[in-house]
Structures
1.
Amino acid sequence: MTSLVERRRPTPPAPTDPMRPVPYRLEHLRQETRDTYTLELAPVDGEPLRYGAGQFTMLDAFGVGEVPISISGDPTRAGLLEHTIRDVGAVTHALVSASPGDVLGVRGPFGTTWDVTDGQGGDVVLVAGGIGLAPVRPALLELLTHRERYNRVVLLYGARTPEDILFGEDLRSWAKDFGVDVDITVDNGQHAWRGKVGLVTQLVPRAGFDARHTLALVCGPEGMMRYVAQALVDRGVPPYRVRLSMERSMKCGIGLCGHCQLRELFVCVDGPVLTYDRLAPLLTCREL
Ligand SMILES: Cc1cc2nc3c(=O)[nH]c(=O)nc-3n(C[C@H](O)[C@H](O)[C@H](O)COP(=O)(O)OP(=O)(O)OC[C@H]3O[C@@H](n4cnc5c(N)ncnc54)[C@H](O)[C@@H]3O)c2cc1C
Ligand code: FES
């Protein structure tokens, strides 16, 4: 006979299928630059998604396709789910062309995190190139909620042109309100640009941080990450304290299909955030 207690026990929720997209409604669409937009999504049913800084979701523009996109919002606040997307092809174009009220599919969150708390008590250096600032933003927002636990926080950011600089208001506030050392460079500056011109790699040797007590987080094109990681190691940052967020073509996002394989690694589950000591031998193999 079933006891009263057993009968009152709630039925445990059915395990969710990681391959089934969950419907999310687009609440706001914010244009960041000429080709980059931030989408703010809310679940059609249920709770906001919990995630760690550095994780990504598979975003589905129904009928067009599904792509991996990093979460760009604040992981310490439950709220709208943010993704910042550069319009480069069919699926990203469909995603940034959605209108408020439209429903998109979300799978995840997937992958490893930046684990920014490992930098507590020391300096943290974040280096981003282009759209790479989007995956780095959650790590910065997380550490700024406990700013007093970190010493120097340095953000080195490279964009193609001044018009391509992402999160302009954030950059100003991080510097002014939180004491982040923000240093920006562009590949091509017009006459009105009074800032630096050159590669973000060139900012590393002069940036003010104590290399031996630094955690470094790097995201951008693979070539840029290779040079930045080496420049950080040359400054004295231990390779295991340098973390890179890798991009690979992905299909399943959960370690089943092999699309994202990088020699022995499946970037969707072993990454996207990986340490440089593990990645260095793979980054030098251009054919992989
Ligand atoms: C873990 C992870 C996180 C990502 N996070 C973000 C993010 O936060 N924001 C964002 O905008 N994108 C992000 N991307 C990249 C994004 O997934 C691709 O831009 C997208 O898959 C392209 O799909 P598409 O159908 O729009 O274009 P496609 O038709 O697949 O490609 C169109 C053109 O863009 C080029 N292209 C494709 N992928 C990339 C890429 N990764 N980088 C540069 N050029 C590319 C192709 O070579 C082609 O020329 C991430 C990728 C991974 C693996
Ligand atoms: S995307 Fe399928 S194994 Fe990584």
2.
Amino acid sequence: MYRKLGYAVVATSRSITPANDERTLTVAGDIADPATAERVIVAAIDRFGGVDTLVNNAGIFVAKPFTDYTADDYAAATGVNLTGFFRITQLAVEHMLTHGGGHIVNVTTSLVDNADSNVPSVLASLTKGGVQSATKSLAIEYAKRGIRVNAVSPGTINTTMHDEDSHPVLAALQPVGRMGEVSDIVDAVIYLETAPFVTGEILHVDGGVSAGH
Ligand SMILES: NC(=O)c1ccc[n+]([C@@H]2O[C@H](COP(=O)([O-])OP(=O)(O)OC[C@H]3O[C@@H](n4cnc5c(N)ncnc54)[C@H](OP(=O)(O)O)[C@@H]3O)[C@@H](O)[C@H]2O)c1
């Protein structure tokens, strides 16, 4: 989507492969490792001259009853969702402060604001809730220095996160009675990218979950 807006893109994930596009650079790595964050930001500056926008999209979701969570679950969720957000955002903000500002978009979850007894998932609330609060905190900290910080809060979205077998149950979690599509999230990020007066916004894209049941 950012390529269509005219941006060069640096994309990262553990299993990402090289892109067939000279304006898209991929950096393979574990975002829970701060060294990956440093490699991504350095690559963006070296190859494309800077960082205008950072989208923190990598995330993991482990749903289980609170007392069933293991130490590995805790380490995995906090590693990707919190540590994976922290260092790369810090590096991006440092760069943006001296290069004319920028925009950060975080991807959280509707479960932060609307816990659901059908989906026990405190590690999602704990980690994405932290990112959601940090979205507002950073928006205020940098409001006068040209950096906007927003979030998209998705309901259940049709991605590889969910087995097809679970789709009927997941669809019923939304008042609209269906799951969202990746394009719904893309549209929300594009809106935030092109909305210069919007910062600190938690944009719910959740088929009505945030309105009630
Ligand atoms: N799908 C939903 O229903 C839903 C609902 C609410 C919020 N969200 C949020 O939306 C975002 C995208 O989720 P999704 O549905 O696209 O999930 P997904 O299909 O499971 O994909 C997760 C993405 O994150 C990357 N990733 C996972 N662990 C990583 C790590 N340690 N280091 C670097 N990259 C890592 C994965 O790539 P690799 O495996 O190659 O590393 C993959 O690209 C997440 O933040 C998720 O929490 C999703």
